[in-house]
Amino acid sequence: MNQPHFVSAFPQVVQMAEVPRGVKNPKIITKFAREVGESTTEHVARYLVAIGNLANDENLKMKFFPSSLTKNVFTWFLNLRPNSIITWNQLETAFHAQFYREKLNVAVTDLVVLKREDGETIDDYMIRFKNARSRCYVSLPESEIVKIVVMGLGFYMRRKLLNVHISNLAHLAKRVRQVELMKKEKEKYRNEQKLKSKPFTRKEKVAYVTM
Question: Domain Retrotransposon gag: where (predicted)?
Fold first, then answer.
């Protein structure tokens, strides 16, 4: 029985492209998932900023682009016809053709389903939310907006913010940063204590007798 195998939409020259010696592969945090408020044009711009000077190499620019996709959008890339994308222009055109949507009004329910992604900073999450909120046809008080944003945070953060009065989004972002910083400091302290508590092997003393 033949095993299925993946065949890339990119030519071999793109797949084999390597970053210059001494340069690390780009760390791409912002992922495009085709959520409400996401813009394909804005995503491409963010991606090019993330890879920096590597954008000057067309092969590398193409090679790392799939790393900026997630969920069904990444599945779309996997299903592209083998060797069908030869240039960056072809890739960008195909991406926009598949996922570009005009800025339509969004409902409150669309705001509620927005969630903070793993590894996404609170600031990037706020930007995504505010972009969607700007097209919401329902006017909501700031207190309700804060509640909706908190719902999009993970369970740990929601628990930490329980019974904490937060007046606006700026205050919320500040509190989240404080909680995350405190969590990192606690983890660092625990790791240091573990290292200190590890038993060490004492060297046995050897007595030398002078003859």
Answer: 63-153
pLDDT for the residue 111: 86
What is the SS3 string spanning the chain?
CCCCCCCCCCCHHHHCCCCCCCCCCCCCCCCECCCCCCCHHHHHHHHHHHHHHHHHCHHHHHHHHHHHECHHHHHHHHCCCCCCCCCHHHHHHHHHHHHCCCCCCECHHHHHCCCCCCCCCHHHHHHHHHHHHCCECCCCCHHHHHHHHHHCCCHHHHHHCCCCCCCCHHHHHHHHHHHHHHHHHHHHHHHHHHHHHCCCCCCCCCCCCCC
Domain extent, residue 94, equals 12-99
Are both 120 and 179 inside the same structural domain? Answer: yes
CB distance 54 to 60 below 8 Å: yes
18: left (phi > 0), else alpha (psi -120 to 50), else beta? Answer: beta
**17 occurs within a structural domain:** yes
Q: Mean pLDDT, 10 residues at a time, over the chain (211 residues)?
A: 78 96 90 79 91 95 96 93 94 90 69 87 90 79 91 91 91 94 90 77 54 52
Whole-prediction pTM: 0.52
Is 204 among the domain residues? no
